[in-house]
Every structure is written in C-alpha cells, then in structure tokens.
Design a protein that fits this description.
This protein is α/β, with parallel strands linked by helices. Helix content is 25%, strand content 25%. The longest helix is centred in the C-terminal third of the chain and has 13 residues. Bound molecules: flavin-adenine dinucleotide and FE2/S2 (inorganic) cluster (FES).
C-alpha cells in the first residue's frame, strides 16, 4: 500500500523485487493518487505499508504466462523466479498498442536464458500478432499440456483465461484487483464472495475462482460498496 501524503493510499504490485533492498512499482496514471505519484520526484516523501496478501507460486514445469497492459508489471518478478527454477516458460503478452507492451526487453532477456517462447499481441496490430492474447493462448493449450497458467491483466481477459484453464484442465493462478483500503482483511472493501482479496489474494487459484464465479469477470464494488460491472 503506497501512501501519498495529503492525497490517498493505493495498492500496488512490485514490478522489481530487488535482492539488495531496492524494489520498484510501475504505475499507470488513471486518477488522483496515481497522477500524484507520477508528479513525485526523488527525495519526496511517500509511505509504504506491506507487503500484504500472497503472490504467484513459481512451479518448476511447463508454464504459460498470460499478461496484459499494466498487469505485466507483477509478472516480471514471476518470470525471474521461474527462470531461476529453470522452468519451461511460454509468455503471451498482450496490449492495446505497442507502447503499452511493458517490460518486453526484460522479459525477452529472461525467457531467452531458459530457451522459452514469447508471443506478443496488440489490438491495433502495431506489434506482434493482431488481436487479443487469449487467442494464441487457446491455440497453444489445444496443442499441448501445460502444468500451470499464470495470469494478470484486465479482468475480462483473465476471465477468458479462467474458462480456458477449465476447458483444458490446467491449474491456474490469477491476480485480481479490487478496491483496497486497510490491506489487512478488516474493512471489507475488497471482498469477493468468501475472499478478502487483500488477505486471501490477490492471487487466487482456479478452484477459488470457481467459488466466486457469479462475480469474477462480471462485478466489482465501487468505493461505496455498490456493485458495478467489471
Ligand atoms: C493488488 C493490486 C495491485 C495493483 N498493482 C498495480 C500496479 O502494479 N500498477 C498500477 O498502475 N496499478 C496497480 N493497481 C491499481 C491501482 O491500485 C489503481 O489504479 C489505483 O488505486 C487508482 O487510484 P487513483 O486515485 O489514481 O484513481 P481513482 O481516482 O481511484 O480512479 C480514477 C479512475 O480510474 C479508474 N481506475 C481505478 N482503478 C483502476 C484500475 N486498476 N485500472 C484501470 N482504471 C482504474 C476508476 O474507475 C476511475 O474512473 C493494483 C491494484 C490492486 C488491487
Ligand atoms: S482492503 Fe480492507 S479487507 Fe481488504
């Protein structure tokens, strides 16, 4: 949880988990807090609480990573962990345009070390395959078995990946976003079904997602707790 004094406190994933105590977040500017973060410079004061919740569990096996947009940020430390395990990595990275394909160089470097594969898609066709990232994911799952799928990005994309994981009987780890306030499982802002996303998540498994099938990919809560479409 990153506190910007006088503005707000917002949840962020780590896009770098440094071995020597230096870590990083990657912030998309969407509103007041994220705009204020973009305006901060070196030496300004920020507050940090955490880390809270869980993370992806690296599996040494044949792994598929499906990420989109700013959802690529928390996938970079996962690719690092998988490369360190010498896992077989297939990365499917999607974005609306080429400019939004974050961390491509870093991921390419890591994946090439273990002889893995990267497929990129852009919705406007400006880089890689034209279309959405779930299309090559489905083709690859139809061709051969994977031990696990990891996903982070827009919830509609993750919902499609969830359906594919069910169809191809493949374990899934998906990182969800909900409004977070306390980060400690106390306030209920992030509740989805029986789960507090700040504490039980943000990464949920296929079986956990099945239990929230009436909300996942369909509904989220706004700041007042009212249900709105995802
Ligand atoms: C577990 C977790 C990890 C996250 N990791 C990251 C990260 O690594 N990098 C990052 O940039 N963001 C991340 N987010 C999202 C980030 O917390 C929100 O974008 C931020 O809280 C928005 O605050 P704001 O005050 O700038 O915008 P608000 O004023 O709260 O919202 C402004 C506008 O942006 C929209 N908006 C709010 N949240 C999002 C969103 N997530 N995506 C798109 N539009 C949104 C709102 O609907 C509203 O219209 C994460 C969220 C969670 C729950
Ligand atoms: S953010 Fe308060 S319970 Fe999750």
């Amino acid at each position: 949880m990153i506190w910007i004094p006088g503005v707000d406190e917002v949840p962020m994933s780590l896009s770098t988990i440094g071995r020597h105590g230096l870590s990083a977040v990657t912030v998309a500017e969407v509103g007041d807090a994220t705009q204020a973060l973009h305006q901060r410079t070196s030496g300004d004061l920020l507050g940090i609480r955490g880390p809270f919740g869980n993370g992806f569990s690296p599996v040494k096996g044949k792994t598929m990573i499906v990420g989109g947009g700013t959802g690529l940020a928390p996938l970079v430390p996962l690719v690092e962990a998988l490369a360190a395990l010498d896992a077989r990595i297939t990365c499917l990275l999607g974005a609306k345009t080429k400019d939004e394909l974050l961390f491509l160089d870093r991921i390419e470097q890591l994946v090439s070390k273990v002889g893995g594969e990267i497929v990129t898609t852009t919705e406007d066709g400006s880089y890689g395959l034209a279309g959405v990232v779930t299309e090559p994911a489905e083709k690859m799952l139809a061709k051969g078995r994977f031990d696990v799928i990891y996903t982070c990005g827009k919830e509609q994309m993750m919902y499609k990946v969830f359906l594919l994981a069910g169809r191809y009987n493949t374990p899934l780890q998906a990182s969800l976003e909900r409004i977070m306030r306390c980060g400690l499982g106390l306030c209920g802002s992030c509740v989805v079904g029986e789960f507090m996303i700040c504490k039980d998540g943000p990464v949920l498994s296929y079986d956990e997602l099945l239990k929230i099938g009436d909300e996942f990919g369909k509904l989220k809560r706004d700041f007042s707790g009212r249900e709105t479409p995802v």
